[in-house]
Amino acid sequence: MKRDDLVRAIGEIDDDLILQADAPPKKTNAFRGWKRWGTVAACFVLLFAILFPLGIRLAKRNAVGQGLTYDLMEGIVPRQRSGIPAPITNDAATAATDFSVRLFREAYDGNNTLISPLSAMLALAMTANGAKGKTLSQMESAFGMSLDDLNEFFYSYRTGLAQTEKCKLTLANSIWLHSSSNVRSAFLQTNADYYGADAFAAPFDKSTIRQINEWVNEKTDGMIPELIDEIPGDTVLYLINALFFDAEWANPFSPRNTQPGTFTKENGERVKVDLMIAEEVCDYVVSDQAQGIVKYYGGGEYAFVALLPNKYVLLSDFVASLDGGSLRSLLTNRQTGEVRIRLPKYEVEYTVDLSDALQNMGMTAAFGGKADFSGITGRRRDLRVDSVVQKTFFSVDENGTRAGAATESGLYMSVKPTFVFTRPFVYMLVDTRNYLPLFIGAMNDPTK
């Protein structure tokens, strides 16, 4: 595409998309949910950027004015469906789990690592609805399912979320468009139908930074108070997912049993931790490479999985061996019995750019100069994914969300299997219907 054509394409505005001002999202207290037990939050951002040449027509942006954001969903209502959502197929659940594990493998850097594959998939799936040609085919290949199947999978997943008094999971999606750009109504309609997405046209100045962070802060109940601190000058579009999980254990740890302990890192260094101690009936798993526990939250719809590599198996080697099929097989063949658990308390805050991981998984076209996202704008132009940023928070204590791994020593020393998480392990938060990981982490040092 010629530069002049590119400039004209960017400068065109569909006035019908900007209908009326929308007040900024209500600001919440950034620390309102911080003290809630068992809280997990993740945000995922896709940043679409195009290098702007000087001289772009900004008349419409100036007309929008500083700080004004327009709701692009005026007149776009999610289509109502008759009947209940179709059940998620085993093939779709396996493909989603496999994508989750492969993304974690690519993101693991040898240190404490924490990602939310579910949050990543939701943001990327919304993006795929605007992709065409090779860009779309690569995304479908990475997901392991077609775009139609992906949309149906997430519609069923999102509308069928289990909620109990002691276990809550919320998902929120939004699209933020630079007010000097245009977007196809079909793109907005599809993401409204399947993902319940909000969409806004904004000036992409300091006010937009504030509004995006307020939206994320509200949707994560204060767990992620700030997602972005600047908007690069060439940015034209954000797609954002926010995920919030708040749960109590079905069988909590007793604070009276928590004791000081020692955690040995992979390099042999020892650090002091607080170990939660319990003897209880619990699901557990055993394989050639690892052992672990499956501990449920209230209602039983979600569970915490902790996998400790067997002796002489490095955590990095264990992570490299994971795949979706073997993980699902491991979890579906779990055993139940009375066990002993020694699990460290910890909190993890993590920020990562997943661009390299996604490109290593085959999504190269989306990041290149020939990316085709004409399904968003209606015109093929050099609109590409520039960066993929995710922030996560994970808290583990006696009352709620926690992480762990299993050691083999107890299996030889006691009638009751003993799982002592005092060396590096992998942990997950999964739903117990599809075994789709909401979060996957590697714990190398609980003190950081």
Please give the structural blueprint.
Elements: H1 3-11, E1 21-22, E2 39-49, H2 59-64, E3 69-71, H3 90-107, E4 113-115, H4 117-128, H5 133-143, H6 147-159, E5 167-178, H7 185-195, E6 198-202, H8 206-219, E7 235-247, E8 259-264, E9 270-286, E10 290-296, E11 302-309, H9 315-321, H10 324-332, E12 335-344, E13 346-353, H11 355-360, H12 374-377, E14 384-396, H13 409-413, E15 418-420, E16 425-431, E17 437-443
Parallel strand pairs: 5-6, 12-15
Antiparallel strand pairs: 1-3, 2-7, 2-14, 3-6, 4-17, 5-7, 8-9, 9-10, 9-12, 10-11, 11-16, 13-14, 16-17
Helix pairs in contact: 3-10, 4-6
Radius of gyration: 23 Å
Indicate the percent of residues in helices: 25-40%
Q: What CATH architecture of the largest domain would you give?
A: 2-Layer Sandwich
Average per-residue pLDDT, rounded, comes to: 78
The ordered H/E elements are HEEHEHEHHHEHEHEEEEEHHEEHHEHEEE
Count of runs of 4 or more consecutive helical residues: 13
Q: Per CATH, what is the topology of the largest domain? A: Antithrombin, Chain I, domain 2
CATH evolutionary superfamily of the largest domain: Antithrombin, subunit I, domain 2
